[in-house]
Structure formats: C-alpha cells, structure tokens
Amino acid sequence: MTSPVIGTPWQKLNRPVSEEAIEGMDKYWRASNYMSIGQIYLRSNPLMKEPFTRDDVKYRLVGHWGTTPGLNFLLAHINRLIADHQQNTVFIMGPGHGGPAGTAQSYLDGTYTEYYPNITKDEEGLQKFFRQFSYPGGIPSHFAPETPGSIHEGGELGYALSHAYGAVMNNPSLFVPCIVGDGEAETGPLATGWQSNKLVNPRTDGIVLPILHLNGYKIANPTILARVSDEELHDFFRGLGYHPYEFVAGFDNEDHLSIHRRFAELFETIFDEICDIKAAANTDDMTRPFYPMLIFRTPKGWTCPKFIDGKKTEGSWRAHQVPLASARDTEAHFEVLKNWMASYKPEELFDDKGAIKDDVVDFMPKGDLRIGANPNANGGVIREELDLPALENYEVKEVKEFGHGWGQLEATRKLGEYTRDIIKNNPDSFRIFGPDETASNRLQASYEVTNKQWDNGYLSKDLVDEHMAVTGQVTEQLSEHQCEGFLEAYLLTGRHGIWSSYESFVHVIDSMLNQHAKWLEATVREIPWRKPISSMNLLVSSHVWRQDHNGFSHQDPGVTSVLLNKTFNNDHVIGLYFATDANVLLAIAEKCYKSTNMINAIVAGKQPAATWTTLDEARELVAKGAGEFEWASNVKTNDEAEIVLASAGDVPTQELMAAADRLNKLGVKFKVVNVVDLIKLQSAKENDQALSDAEFAELFTEDKPVLFAYHSYAHDVRGLIFDRPNHDNFNVVGYKEQGSTTTPYDMVRVNDIDRYELTATALRMIDADKYADEIKKLEDFRIEAYQFAVDNGYDIPDYTDWVWPGVKTDLPGAVSATAATAGDNE
C-alpha cells in the first residue's frame, strides 16, 4: 500500500504569485489572528457588535498568543502554495501553544464545520467556536487530535521533526512543512531530529521543509538560537546538511502586503529548489542533497499592542501567554483588547451573518488538498490491513515431538523471521525502527528482504557497511526519541511497524509513550471521525534478567509501571505482553500487528531459552491473557492444590518451572498458571476486557496461596489485583532493584526470584514448620551456588543443566532447556 497521491505534486508555478492571492493571504492572516484572539478572550459577541462589554470576555483567560501570529502567517502561505501547486501536504506545528492558529485554520478551510456541524459558519457558530477553546466541556489549547489536519499536538516539545520525517517515509508525494519553535529547538530530541535528513531519500520519500520560527523568547527568557549571530546560525544548519534561507519581518513599519509579497517570492524559490531535488531523484544522481530549510524571524506576539501598561509587549516574553490578563477585570485593559481586535478590521472579513467572506478564503485549496482534509492526516482513512503470512510457518514444532520445555531458542529471532516476511508481503507500508539494535535484538532476518535506509555516504559495503542502502524498510538511529517519533508519524499517516529497544532505555521515551497514549485515548473516547490507526508495537528486549553482562545500569523493567497508568478508563489503548517463549511471542505479534489504536509493549528475551507451549496453546494463552499449564500442574481441580504457582515473563517462568519440579519431588500439590497479557489481571471494575472475577477465581482459586513470579516490579501486579478474589493470598516477587555485572543465576538470586528461593517461599507459604529442614537446605544451597559462581566465573551445573522432566534430550536436535545463557556483549 502507498499513501494516496493527491493533486499533482512537485510542480513549479512558473509565474509570480498573483496579487489576488497576496491580498487573500493578508485577509486570511488578519482573520486567523482575530479568531485566535477571540478564542483566548471571548465567550460571547464574537464580532464585537454594540454593546460590546467586559461581560463578553471569558472569566478565566487561558491560551497562548506569542507564537500564534507567526504561525497564522505561515499557514496563510502554506495554504496558498498548496492551492497553486496542487501539492499533497501535511502541516506539523511544533510550537506547543499554537493551538488557536490550528483551529482557526481548520475553521477557515471549512473542515472544522464538516467534522463538527454545530460549529456553523455564522455568528452563532463563531461564538461557539470562540467559547469552546480552553473552556470547560470544550477543546484543548494545543493543535490536538480534536483539530482536523493535526498529527502532532506539540504539548510536549521536541518531536516535531521526528514526526515530520516519519510521515514522509514511503510517501514520495507528501510535502511536510514543519514549524519548529525556537524554544522547542533547545530540546534534546529536536536537536537530534535535524539529523533525519540522512535517513530519507527524495526518490522514495517525501520532503520535509523545516521552518525555524525565531520569535526570540520562551516563557520568560530569550532563546538560544535567536541570540546567536546570523553567520553562526547559517553555518550550524549547513553543517547539518541544510541550505538555510532566512526571512525577517515585523521589526519595522513595512506594510503587510509588502511582507506577504516578499515571503511569497521566497517561498516559491524554496519550493522550486525542492522540485529540483525531486526531479534529480528520478535520475541516476542519488547524491544526498542539501535540503532547504527556513529561518523565519518575527517579533513574539506580532501585531499585538507594542506596549501594555508602559511595558514592552510585542517582541518580548510578555506576549507569550495572555498579554491582557485583566481584560475582564479592568476597563482600561478591556479598551486595549477592543482596539487590538478592531485593528484586524473584522468588518472586512465577516459578513452581516458572521460568515467568513469569500475573498478571505478564495485563494485556499479545495477538497482533500485542504490541510484539515488531507487523508494522510487521518491515517485510518487510508490504512489497509497487513498481508500477514501464516504463523504456522514459524512455529517451534519440536515442542510437540520432544515435549514441553524443549530446546534453546532465541524467541525474538523467530519474531524476526515472521517480521521479515511481513515486510516482504507489505514492502512499502511496514517498517522496523531501532536505536542501532535491530540485529542485537535478533530482528536481522529482515535484511534478507530489505536494507537499512541510509543516505549519508558509505565505506565498503562488503566489508564494513553491511545491509545499507538509500532505500530500505529498516531505519536505525541511536535515539529512542527518533525511533518512537518516526513510527508514531508513520502510523498516524496510515502505515504499520515495530521498533525495538533495550528494556532499561525505553525509559528515555516514557513521556512520548504517555503523549501518544493520550492522543489515542482522546481519539477513542470522543473523536469518531478519526479512523483507527495501526498500533504502536514496541519490542522490549535485552531485558533485566539477561543484562547480567552489562550491569546495574542496564537493569530496569519499569516501563511496565509507566504504561499501567494508562489502563484505568476502559480506553483499551495499552497492551502489555510478556512472551513466555518463542511460540507465545509469535502469537502476541500476530495479535499486535492486527490491532489498532494501541501501544503494545512486548517484553521478550533474546537469549536462548526453553519453549514451553505449542503454537495452538500459545494462541489460546494469548487470546485469554492467562491460562493453566495443565501439563505442568499435578492436580486436576483447585480443591486438590496446596498452592498456585504463577508467572509472567520468560525468566520468571523458567525459574518457577524449576521450582515446580522440586516441589513435585517433595510431594507438594500445585497448579501452574502463566500470564501473558498482564492487563487481563486488572480489576474487572476498572477494565471491562479483563478476566471476570469468576474467571480469575477459577484460574487462581478462591482461597489457596498464590506464588507469583513477575518480570518487573511486584507492585505492578499488586496494584492490578487489589480487589480481586483471593488477592490477600498472593505473594508477588519480582525485580527488587538489585543487580550487577554477574552471572544469570546470581542475577535472579539477588532479587530472590531464583528457583531455590521460590521453592523455599512456596514451602513457607504452605507450612513453614513442616518443611523447615528442606527450607534450610535450599537457603544453604543458594549460598553454595553463589560461591561456586564467584570461584569459577560461571554458574553451578545444578542450575545450568536442569531440564523439565519428560523433555526428550537424547533425540537428534533436542537441546537442554536452560543451558548457559550468558548472552552477547549488548
């Protein structure tokens, strides 16, 4: 699938911009400025008809003016360019507080009324439009998902360029002007976002035009890039691989039509250069171009009163938020507001009924070319289902022959084989992203059908730069921010994908996951016109229990806790899966690749491990979220069990199964339960898709002790089951913030989740006095096993050579279930 080609993209205008368009853009700018101020200030009387009084001003003034007029100016010219060139365009608004500009743009292009028919094109509709902004029961103050045309809210700064470049990948007709605020330009993610031009190419991808909007100030301080010299600034961007243009306006008394003419001419020059780049891309010359970018300097709060109460406002930090915070409270400030709004001459922009006059919007694009209507900005409209290969082709079939617990397989390598063929079947709509970890996390099978996209020069491809080309469906940059941002935008524009990261470093993008979850939550709850997009699939690998070689800094499974915070409103935007083995991981991946409007975190080890389930069993386990390993339990009914042994995660399952083997030899009666979809455990009162209380009680019993070995922090599970049946009898053990560079056994030992401690804990839960001698033996052996590792540098054979009883290890191809898993260097 490719995104739709709208209009006739990449065509030069070959004529001056018409005077009618110049005048139209000025009227648009005035109208959008007026509407932006109206959204911040007015609750009634949107056209200031007499009597216009302080009672028409909102009681609580919320919003931001400072960046908005510059954005309105740019939107006028972007609309003109789209219309004149018939150019397929998505707009990215990086400044977080430019929401009034985005909603005004959608109202002016007509899409706002189409999606919200109650916001009519008259005075009544305009009043509702003004009043709803940052108002109880209304809309947010950002360029939020509620606004047609938005794929980037900007509430958290730093990701504008990541989203822009993700949107153009495999989207060769798409033009994305991306406004970067000068405050945003100080963030780490944005700083690395400039490097994205090395990871796309103009033949198979669209074009991003970064526009750095320098208005000089943040909330209360000057911005760094606004204060460096022009020479330094231009050299900086040349060094990043851009051809910088600069435009300055608003610092003198130049008339506005003249400013529009100058900018229109410059914008055409820039777009001509882009068209030349696209034309050259269709020849044999694939040398990476210097892409144009624009430095756009205007005063902060452009066109607002230059001074308020004798203090400089336009062109200062005082214009950042609400310049007239007392417009309702004092007559003096109200008069300033009235004169300010009147300066845009609304009588020339609106007719007697309050509708926008035709000559304000005649220059703008029509139909799907409108910013608010472009299907790329509502990706679910153009999304197609993946062509998924049959999962049976990748099954670990030896489990059926050699027994549950067979083998030593790297689960994520199986996922890599499956994903390889998804790319083969969907060559331009599925991508893998990763921070230099695609092969490390065992997804390198993809290189059999695609390359890593790289347009930044090569050394010997045979000896050094393997699997690299200017086109490819794998993108690697050592920035978790970029990986997340690229994939978010790729999904938001109708495509599919996955990215992987080492578990401890997923925390780098905790807040990005939060922001994307909030976008999905808003969409699911209240924006039916936004059609479902493909899910964000995140492979969390190189996990805590197999980071024994990299040490304490690499040991942190806490992303689970972050994601669980987004599971309490029945929005169902979070999937949190623990792959027990390779077959379970395949079943999880199949479910996640089919899902929509979710963030699926898939926790899976990449080191050799046993396979406990057949594919059919794995699919049933994933479908239910949790289930009994009947073949491992030594009871038939709940009444027979003395204890329930439960686990979530590959290593916790390995340790629990070894403990079960020891308990069985001691004559303990138990039931074995495995949890794959953690959120299914959540209280049914909080999650209508979770296990019912009856199902929960059937699985974990109503009154028997439950020993739960959990991959991450134990409080995750405790918080989920707080009011479940039998919750008081749960003993949850997990990572306890203990670790080092050590051995696999010692890593589980220091967190009290090793098989010997689990066995001892189970015996204590059943009858500590009865099993006192056995518990003492286990505790002594733990010390002995640790000393063995200290003395030898590897783990004791009792640990490394254990296999589940009944596994056939003497047949061709059969391997010990948990033989040494020290792992690679990364």
From TrEMBL:
| SUPFAM superfamilies referenced in this protein's UniProt entry, alphabetically | Thiamin diphosphate-binding fold (THDP-binding) (SSF52518)
Gene Ontology biological process terms, A to Z: carbohydrate metabolic process
Output the Gene3D superfamilies linked to this UniProt entry: 3.40.50.920, 3.40.50.970
Task: Enumerate the Pfam families for this protein.
Answer: XFP (PF03894), XFP_C (PF09363), XFP_N (PF09364)
Q: Which UniProt keywords apply?
A: Lyase, Thiamine pyrophosphate
Q: Which cofactor does it need?
A: thiamine diphosphate
The transmembrane residues are none
Q: A GO molecular-function term, please?
A: aldehyde-lyase activity
The reply to whether Lyase figures as a keyword in the UniProt entry is: yes
The EC number(s) given in the record are 4.1.2.-
Where's the Xylulose 5-phosphate/Fructose 6-phosphate phosphoketolase C-terminal domain?
Answer: 606-804
Residue ranges of every copy of the Xylulose 5-phosphate/Fructose 6-phosphate phosphoketolase N-terminal domain listed in the record: 17-381
Q: What is its EC class? A: lyase
Similarity field: Belongs to the XFP family.
Q: What is this protein called?
A: Probable phosphoketolase
Q: Which organism is it from?
A: Bifidobacterium gallicum DSM 20093 = LMG 11596
Taxonomy of origin reads: Bacteria, Bacillati, Actinomycetota, Actinomycetes, Bifidobacteriales
